[in-house]
Q: What sequence folds into this?
């Protein structure tokens, strides 16, 4: 027997405990103490956790955007990372509180209200469990009904990330199905792709569609090739234009528009060093549709 | 003698050092490098600290709000957590720089200018010490007079959190009394509770009063019971309404008002999926008063 | 041979890995998942890193401000800290991607587009290396051209901070010269100092000039001494005033202007508990000049 074994185990244990990362998302903003209260509860479970933020600037109650922001980021974090997403217009009502383990080994602690729409499709449902609040709820919080983010989600996430509980101890397993917000996928008919504008890259005014690169490549557009694009809001045309496709912004002059594949490999529109969404008054959502075809 | 003792001590030491959490609050915003400079100074004391933010969006010089945000969050962090709060209109003048150890074992490093008003009452004054700047001040900072947050507070907090100094080494003990901002506590007369609006939950427009749940319970209002509320600004009535009391937002329809107990167990007003403060033009402060009684 | 040597090395190794701090700056804002995606990539390289933010509110494409914010903060962090700065209007074009090791032992990972203007002068160029993207680029990112911050910079920074690669393994050494944005240094002629307004302390409206304390001291102004200041925009006078010099804001009444040395020891203008920039309509940039002399 290796006489160092107990020590090695202890060290391995310290090292393992330190892998515990929790990433928080919400619509709380950062002007008050709500986010810090959640992190405090997590740190009280284990001060060794590493606590990070996805964003807390999800527009109030916008579950669709919460779902997309998870889609945009979860895959870049290491396996085992625990996410907490609290955009929860139904707090205190009967919606389920769940932890999703994706097939990629990431965990997402959230109300099951549509927040898992994109991730459940892309990273897949490995296993879904209901949070058993009789054990996974901060002590002394019984009389508070309105801050599940702090009393249940941040607490459960920290227990999971710190290996205080196993995934099984979260609560009973559920069928492999989450509440999803319906959206029409992009489609190709002849040489025209029809899609929607899923979201804006708000900081820069870039417009992200739901057209994946695989579909776009079927149009056989080369670097610099021209596209006819039509953007409509409720069937009314907002923009009709012919713009070049480029791999990167710098290929067009400042102020000029282009189509490109964004960091999630979806077709997107931008103005180099400008704001496409603002200039052309374009927003996002299922009522914003887009048609793309090769220019003649 | 256990031959592993030195090693065990070393490991224990590494583990202990990792418990060091510092949480920062200020009115600096996050558009420039001020917050990062504070964290850099703390990391230079010990790179193993875990540095988090409460908020840096306290309105400029608003000591009252700084005090309330500490009240809203400190208790959720583990014992031994060190807070730095820098809302400091008097920087460079004679106000005391102190570290409060609360009875709950939390530390708060701050100018003693009213920032400790709420915490000193709720968590209690365990011990109060003046910061001895002859030792607890960043080297090479003698000629800078305007950034105590970086040169004294972040530095002292990191030394305390990393066990570089003991609490006694912060500086001389002070009498158990802090500078406090006066505010009238809520009171019950007959079946009417009179209170003030301490603060807004700005992100959602909820209105938080200073009426604690214990006082409110004396009205014997059941779930769904109706309240007559009157909100006044400088004695002028801004809102008179009859609204139901519920434990959670989802019990009323979207767009409908309700009274509820917030996450600090104080009576509050909200509109489900709406903005109560904006709709009824309500703000916060000692000049905003509220009366609550059971509806007939 | 010490039988504990392997263990000690292991422990030292764990401890060393924990010194790895990465500090992020960008113009991405924090409303979407871009910053979190960068941190995820870094955590995937090593979950033990400590990841902090300088700011993500650099105005879009403003390289000058990015350079100044680094100047304002890098020096306060411990030796060995790795900074990532991504303000990159030229993403995807031919500008170099570099890592600067300053003479102070800090690392900055950035496009070499002017971002290193101030730091290269103040902390000095220790060594400059080009990032070899054939090895220092996240796997599976070959087809994405627009998010170097995530795929190259955050990835390389994490590898460097976690000692996965040595500084030499970043890529080939470059000559000791960075792309710099020209700006006229402040100068003294007779008893008049001419300088520019480098930046605003945006949160408080303080105005920071490029006049260093060493130059200012040659005017021999004592605490409370009066200065004649003239601020011009494109040669047109915006403000002419006589204001006192003080070491700290509290020496003048609330609402009164003063000159002082800021936290970087440069001459600055402020209104105690007010907003100098807003009140006098002053902004920053090389077209904003200032003249300072002792009042008669």
A:
């Amino acid at each position: 027997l290796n006489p160092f074994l107990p020590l090695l185990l202890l060290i391995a244990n310290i090292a393992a405990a330190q892998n515990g990362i929790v990433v928080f998302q919400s619509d709380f903003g950062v002007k008050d103490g709500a986010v810090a209260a959640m992190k405090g509860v997590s740190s009280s479970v284990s001060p060794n956790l590493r606590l990070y933020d996805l964003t807390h600037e999800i527009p109030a109650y916008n579950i669709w955007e919460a779902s997309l922001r998870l889609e945009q980021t979860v895959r870049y974090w290491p396996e085992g990372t625990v996410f907490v997403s609290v955009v929860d217009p139904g707090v205190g009502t009967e919606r389920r509180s769940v932890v999703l383990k994706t097939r990629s080994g990431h965990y997402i602690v959230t109300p099951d209200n549509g927040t898992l729409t994109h991730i459940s499709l892309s990273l897949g449902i490995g296993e879904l469990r209901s949070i058993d609040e009789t054990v996974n709820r901060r002590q002394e919080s019984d009389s508070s009904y309105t801050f599940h983010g702090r009393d249940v989600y941040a607490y459960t996430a920290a227990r999971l990330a710190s290996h205080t509980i196993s995934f099984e101890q979260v609560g009973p397993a559920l069928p492999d199905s989450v509440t999803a917000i319906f959206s029409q996928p992009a489609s190709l008919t002849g040489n025209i792709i029809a899609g929607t504008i899923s979201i804006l890259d708000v900081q820069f005014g870039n417009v992200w569609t739901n057209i994946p690169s695989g579909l776009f490549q079927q149009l056989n557009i080369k670097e610099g090739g021209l596209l006819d694009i039509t953007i409509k809001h409720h069937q009314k045309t907002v923009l009709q234009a012919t713009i070049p496709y480029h791999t990167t912004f710098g290929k067009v002059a400042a102020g000029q528009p282009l189509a490109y594949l964004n960091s999630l490999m979806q077709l997107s529109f931008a103005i180099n060093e400008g704001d496409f969404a603002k200039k052309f008054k374009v927003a996002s959502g299922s009522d914003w549709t887009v048609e793309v075809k090769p220019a003649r």
